[in-house]
Amino acid sequence: MDKDSVMYQLMDLRVNTVLNSIQAADEEYQEILRRSDVYSGQLDAMDLPRETRLLIDQYVSEQNALGARYGALAYLLGFSDCIELFRNTLKVPKWEENSSAAG
């Protein structure tokens, strides 16, 4: 999907404004954050060699990127499912059907 599409712009707006306040209020999210901080402190206390710390950091960063991408794709899928549901309920043709009929 094109990252300049309306869906991506809506996702960006919702995620960067509303989601931040939801995360701050969500107890489960805050508990995961607290546990993560404990593990981070334990890793720091191990005084691992720089090369090992960088490898762990790269691995964790890639795992975070996978989770974030999965969440973004799930959000887009859910949003497009809602659009399709409303479109079908209201009997609105797809955009491609409208633009081909007009041209």
What does this entry look like structurally?
- This protein has 103 residues and is mainly alpha-helical.
- It folds into two domains: 10-47; 49-103.
- The chain is 85% helix and 0% strand.
- The protein contains four helices and no strands.
- It is elongated.
- The two termini are 24 Å apart.
> What's the gyration radius in Å?
21 Å
End-to-end distance, in Å?
24 Å
Q: Biggest sheet, in brief?
A: none
Amount of helix: over 70%
Number of strands: 0
Average pLDDT, all residues: 86
| Run of helices and strands | HHHH
**Judging from the principal axes of the Cα atoms, what is the shape?**
elongated
Helix/strand structural class: mainly alpha
For this entry, give a set of tags.
about 100 residues, 2 domains, mainly alpha
Set down the secondary structure blueprint.
Layout lengths: L5 H20 L1 H19 L4 H41 L4 H8 L1
Explain briefly what this protein structure is.
The protein has 103 residues and is an all-alpha fold.
